[in-house]
Design brief:
Elements (H helix, E strand, L loop, with lengths): L2 H23 E3 L5 E5 L4 E13 L4 E5 L1 E8 L6 E2 L3 E11 L2 E2 L3 E7 L3 E5 L4 E3 L4 E17 L2 E14 L4 E4 L3 E6 L16 H5 L6 E10 L3 E4 L1
Antiparallel strand pairs: 1-11, 2-6, 2-17, 3-4, 3-5, 3-16, 5-7, 7-10, 8-9, 9-12, 10-12, 11-12, 12-13, 13-14, 13-15, 14-16, 15-16
Length: 223
């Protein structure tokens, strides 16, 4: 079985197991249609912890010691339907990003990343908490590692825990993909050559996201 097929199969098994665990530990809330995000002064910061990005097909992981997002709540304190924009995260601070093969890597965002709650909160029995399904979206960034450059885009599905203020990505494919053909690296002669070929990153590869982000003073209420 090829390296790529093994990674895809492992990702599918992990995703199925995670879904089963969630169903076993959560209780749906009453039927609701709106959510209200509120933050003091409308400002919100998501501080990253152990944030990592893994190209599932290539089996390559990028880890960042710092990966923080900040911005403002959209219409602070005003109710909106699930799936509507909850906030704009126009500032990304990243540092200490590295890959075992390529070494130091830079992540340069473009546009304004956004966040939304996509459904009513659920009550989790152990440990006791309330979680809202949430998604980071309109994500676009340029990745450069040892001269190999490519863009990623899409979204990151996860959940926001109102008790500890953590946004945690779901396991498996996140909704991010490589959106341009990787190019560059020492001695490359064709697109996807050099370091890009060594990393085996390719257009359309799917990306899983590890770690979590902790918000500062963000409240989500349902109605």
């Amino acid at each position: 079985m090829s390296k790529r097929i093994k990674h895809v199969a492992a990702g599918l098994v992990a995703t199925a197991a995670a879904g089963t665990a969630i169903l076993a530990t959560t209780v749906p809330a009453h039927a609701l249609s709106n959510y209200t995000p509120t933050a003091s002064g409308g400002a919100v910061t998501f501080t990253g912890s152990s944030v990592s990005f893994t190209d599932i097909e290539a089996g390559q992981t990028l880890t960042c010691s710092t990966f923080n997002l900040s911005g403002t709540v959209t219409n602070n304190g005003v109710a909106r339907t699930f799936g509507s924009e909850g906030g704009q995260l126009g500032s990304l601070t990243s540092s200490g990003c590295t890959n075992p093969i390529a070494g130091a890597t830079t992540v340069t965002p473009s546009g304004t990343w956004k966040v939304k709650v996509t459904g009513p909160e659920v009550v989790v029995s152990s440990p006791a908490s309330q979680k809202s399904p949430a998604t980071l979206y309109d994500i676009n960034a340029d990745i450069t590692a040892a001269g190999c450059t490519f863009d990623v885009g899409g979204s990151v599905a996860g959940s926001f825990n109102e008790t500890d203020q953590k946004f945690t990505p779901n396991s498996g494919a996140s909704g991010l993909t490589i959106t341009t053909t990787p190019m560059g690296g020492p001695g490359y002669t064709i697109p996807n050559g050099g370091t890009c070929a060594t990393l085996d990153v390719q257009l359309g590869d799917t990306i899983s996201v590890g770690g979590y982000w902790t918000a500062s003073g963000l409240t989500i209420t349902n109605s």
